[in-house]
């Protein structure tokens, strides 16, 4: 592997480690300040996923920095879809009388923007990838970050207008009869 290619990968991996570490720390701090169980559970689970991403990147860093290149098998990230399902279940338990801490919605909106930036970061690196497994890995991570943003959007809607959130989530059917 050419030295310039190795350096490109190391720089991207290092930036990703910082991104994921910062995300984890932000989510843990936000979870401590959340005023309700739905927020605390969502934010803690997002922190766990960010930490999992960080560990995967640290493993990649070891491989690439030792000039072993990108691993032959893609490192799959866990599915974030379960996070949204878990959030919906907790929100159903709480009901429409949700309490939001001062600044919680603002924090959620900031987190949404950070997840969107992470999504874009990983998409860009997928496009620059030299190895197919590298491209697949970054694509999976981009999808994970997008799912994180969607979960946060769901939570923001729940905080802002729980009645509408329930109507949308529960998909009630209205018959004309």
TrEMBL record:
Xref: Pfam families: Rubrerythrin
Gene3D superfamilies: 1.20.1260.10
An example molecular function term from Gene Ontology annotations: metal ion binding
InterPro entries the record matches: Ferritin-like, Ferritin-like_SF, Rr_diiron-bd_dom
Domain of life: Bacteria
All copies of domain Rubrerythrin diiron-binding, residue ranges: 13-153
CDD domains in UniProt: Ferritin_like_AB
Matches recorded under PANTHER family: HYPOTHETICAL MEMBRANE PROTEIN, CONSERVED, RUBRERYTHRIN SUBFAMILY
Designated name of the protein: Rubrerythrin diiron-binding domain-containing protein
Naturally occurring in which organism (per UniProt): Dehalogenimonas alkenigignens
């Amino acid at each position: 592997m050419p030295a310039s290619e190795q350096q490109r990968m190391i720089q991207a991996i290092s930036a990703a480690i910082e991104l994921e570490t910062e995300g984890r720390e932000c989510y843990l701090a936000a979870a401590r300040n959340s005023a309700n169980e739905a927020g605390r559970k969502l934010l803690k689970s997002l922190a766990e996923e960010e930490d999992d991403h960080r560990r995967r990147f640290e493993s990649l860093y070891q491989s690439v920095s030792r000039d072993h290149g990108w691993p032959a098998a893609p490192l799959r990230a866990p599915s974030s879809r379960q996070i949204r399902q878990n959030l919906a279940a907790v929100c159903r338990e709480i009901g429409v009388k949700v309490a939001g801490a001062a600044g919680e919605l603002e924090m959620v909106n900031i987190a949404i923007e950070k997840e969107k930036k992470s999504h874009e970061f990983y998409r860009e690196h997928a496009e620059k990838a030299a190895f197919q497994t590298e491209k697949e890995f970054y694509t999976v991570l981009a999808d994970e970050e997008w799912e994180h943003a969607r979960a946060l959007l769901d939570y923001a809607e729940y905080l802002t207008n729980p009645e509408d959130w329930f109507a949308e989530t529960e998909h009630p059917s209205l018959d004309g009869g």
